[in-house]
Protein 1
Amino acid sequence: MKNFYVVLIIVMLMPGMGVAKSLYTSGDSIPPLPFKLSPKKRLSDSDIAEKKEGLFLTGLPRFEFDPIRGFGIGGNIFLYQNRTKQDPFFYYTPYRYRVNSEFFIFENGRIRYALQMDAPYIFNTRWRMRADAVLWEDPHAQYWGIGRSSLNDLSFSDKSGGVYGARRNFRKVKDYEDNLARAVRMGDGSYITDFHHNQFIQREHLYNLLFERVFMEGRLRLMFGYEALFTAFEDYSYKVAEEAFVVEGRAVDAINNQTLVSKQINDGTWDRFNLSGFNDSFQFTSMLAAALIYDTRDLEPDPSEGVFLEYSHEYSAPWLGSQFNFNKFMLQGQYIHTLLRWGSDKRRVTFAGLGALGHIFGPNINFIEMWDLSSQAEAGGILVLGGERSLRGFREARFLAPTVALINLEMRSHLYDFRMLKQHFSLGLTPFYDLGSVWDNLTDVNLRKWRGAPGVGARAAWNQSTILRLDYGHSREGGQFFFGFSHIF
């Protein structure tokens, strides 16, 4: 394994490499498509002109800072096969297949491994195959409460006087967390802290296998598949805190007080929502998944025109071998439209909007399933409600409930493009506004008490299929930066 990571790092430091030799000569005619595809699915002339032929790698070492987990280092390697311009699918797909490998480790010990494959029109058929294997461990997974009440202001006992004082509301998440981190001396001389009040330890192994078939000249897709999820969790309540605490100028040891997840498990909150699954031994969630998708976008990784409509449904039950029993569905719609082009077709300003509504219900719900609207969503899942893939100005998982609504509005621009080391790059800015809310029941959905967060991002498109993303989101609770791959939708 050690040698594998050495090779991984070396390859990531190399720009895109190894274009395969053409399978055809320039004089060959382009074979017809084996079945008809809508002209709306055809890439734009500028995208086709810049599309790289053959087999190639792109990869990048990543250096991130997360307000929860500190500094992180790792990277991705993307292996693409585009074939040649003599392949009729060259003009209709972002790639013939893509393999993505990822490794990342953070300062706090969070670690993630992932291997993903995507093959549109596999074997020149109407079928698409996706497969994922993801393993991670996070010692600081976030828990801010379940239900509509999670939309309330941050609140905790004021510890500024060295004791637990009156309940206090906090406008900024930094002030709230500074207050939590204070150690308080108890009557027996020991010290306690609430440093991990909104945290727990998460371990997860996820395996996905999905198939899609296209209809209506490629605009309609039927997806179905299977997901195996293994999860284990640990609570910080009453454990010795590993962090150092200073009280009155001297370092002291402290014990973690009861966490919010422990409190809500025991006070009946989880029973009210039929939640379970918080266990330090691995629990098994076996799920069937299906989705109906209508898609007219011209280029999936970075579309300039089109709409995307999806209904997805996930189902888990004991007869599948699962330890849980629930249903989860999501409706989402995306609208992409280029408002302005100049200079060349590659320079443009494009509006991109997403609206999504998700709901989970059943007699025995794995609580971690509330953390995403649907793991089968187009971009690999929509984590809610807060963090880099939803409300970017709020902390990860800041708002959670059985029913979740999300709106993302972006103005994506391509302002400058250039070639370097036989690679094509396009740079641009993306101002955005994120908006969302949560409810205890689907029948409670209304227009009151939504949370919004504006922000701005930078984008770099690398050989079209690889999108690098840097975002800064700001909310009334503070701001945070994110760096990653691909648009959030």
Protein 2
Amino acid sequence: MSSAKNDDLQRIIESAQRMGVEMDEADALSWLSAITAQNQSDIQLDERTGIFGHTITLLDFDDSDLAHFRQVGKLVEFDDIPGKVETALALSGSAAQSKIQTYPGDADFFERVNIIADTKEEACVILSEILRKKALDTIKGDTYQLIEVKFGSYPFNIVTNGKLQHQGNPIAWYPEQIQAGKILGKNEKGEDCEITWEDVSHDPGWCKLDWVVADPVRKKLVNASNMLDVSWEGPDGKIVPLDGYLDSYFQEVYLDGESIHLFSKLVKHVSGDALDHYVEQLEKEVKKYVTKDPNFGKAAKRLYNIFRLTGRYSDAAFLRELFDEPTTILYQVGALIRTIDESFQPGSKIDRSTILSQADQLILGVTMALEGVKEIEIVEMLLNFRNLLAEDINRGELSSQANAVRAELVNIVNNFFYEKLTGVDSIKTYLDELQN
């Protein structure tokens, strides 16, 4: 490693020490040496586990939880249909970085779905059919609840569920709407109108499914999602992405080595500036999470991916250590709140005792990880929140008191990550430039 990069690392380590973030210098140097030796375009197949992905991504993946994620994958994945549909399922987000994120957030999946058809129109019909079938088959179970499906765009302005939805915005379909196959509402003239599933199937846009899943063994709730990258393969072998863009592969860990043939076929069509586009999209998300929709925990996770892919390895090393800190258990506060909100959906079959168990585990984890006045403040609020939950579960909805405590907890988590990010001069400068 060059002397300049070594100096950068020492500067980062000193900043970390000032903020109470313990950085293992030997581990950081080992990671820096490994990442600087990688080729940005390399794909690696691990024959022992049967996973594959970008070599830089695999540096951060711990396969000890692989069986668990493959089990959840059975819920979210789409089936292959010989000669018609071929798929490749991957982990993404914090689940794909389990080696560094001691307290990961959601179970995010990403699936490449390639549809073989004579025409693009036929491919869109096939997608609409398999997507609705998947949603209907997984609406509700003993350990899961479908939250929503992103599919298509509003063809005109419509007021539905008391909210104005503008033409061109992506549609979030809720379970009852998927079952009915249509969305009811009022047009701009105040007249009754509807949008059917078939109405939007010709232009599906970006597609995503979200569930809340209860793990009966771990007694924990988790948000599970599957983001689809759907492509059409015509008779001439040409690959066309149905949402207009074939996604890059810089943060996916593919769970089945046999799907590497599909992956290899598709990535040949990934744009040459895919990395630049990926970083640009991440920067837009970071800007949103530090301005319009403050969530500095999510911002920190995206910054890590930006830094590790753009050569800012010392800053990435700091964030890598930050998410391995016991104090980042605070990130789980947001995950708990999100899954609570979604498991309170009407008609949910998820065992509500799982919610209380997860709250208990989080309280215990915070007690073990934090010290001093901050620990007392957070634990008291969590205990209050947990007690309110126990009452609210019987009514089936969160009380105003629980919502107020939730807002306070979110604010504490935001402040924690804000202090850590802005405590490193180079990261603070980067954020300032991004906002300006």
